[in-house]
Design goal:
Length: about 170
């Protein structure tokens, strides 16, 4: 004589599992295909950081900066935009300004700045447009953000007024 209880228990177990969710065996097809996340368009998307053009506008001048390598600092800088800030002269070498907060620096290599570099200087928390980098050597505290082409007169104009900073091309 067969005992019906194990069969009855098996039917109950299968019914409960089906009611609770997916009962497919590992590797078996599911009823709906998995979905892929949509592509990101945020400024922190690595595919969209390097080569991004950021425009600084103020005092009747505009200076475009092409963002360099994808680093934690460049991604963090882009995440702040758009913003407004003021620039000032520093020692006949650069125009500097202060973002609204310090940028993330961990994981970003230092640099040996050159004329035409936009940098982030970690001890002071400022960005700087180098136009006279002669004699300035490599520093772990000077982080490269990007490059620009502008005359000293254009930089002087920027430093004469509030500056708007915004992404213009990705």
């Amino acid at each position: 004589m067969r005992r019906p209880l194990p069969l009855f228990a098996s039917v109950i177990a299968v019914t409960l599992l089906a009611a609770c969710g997916d009962t497919a065996a590992p590797g078996s097809p599911t009823t709906s295909p998995p979905t892929s996340p949509s592509p990101s368009t945020s400024p922190t998307d690595p595919a969209r950081v390097e080569g991004t053009v950021v425009r600084f506008t103020g005092g009747g001048a505009s200076v475009d900066v092409t963002i360099g390598a994808d680093t934690p600092t460049t991604r963090d800088f882009l995440s702040l935009l758009p913003l407004t800030m003021e620039l000032e002269e520093l020692n006949g070498r650069e125009k500097i300004g202060y973002p609204p907060r310090e940028l993330k620096a961990d994981g970003t290599p230092g640099s040996d700045p050159e004329n035409g570099d936009l940098i982030y200087f970690t001890p002071w928390g400022n960005i700087g447009f180098y136009y006279n980098a002669d004699g300035i050597e490599y520093s772990d505290q000077t982080l490269h953000l990007g490059t620009y082409e502008a005359s000293r007169d254009q930089l002087d104009q920027l430093a004469s007024d509030e500056v708007t900073v915004e992404v213009v091309d990705r």
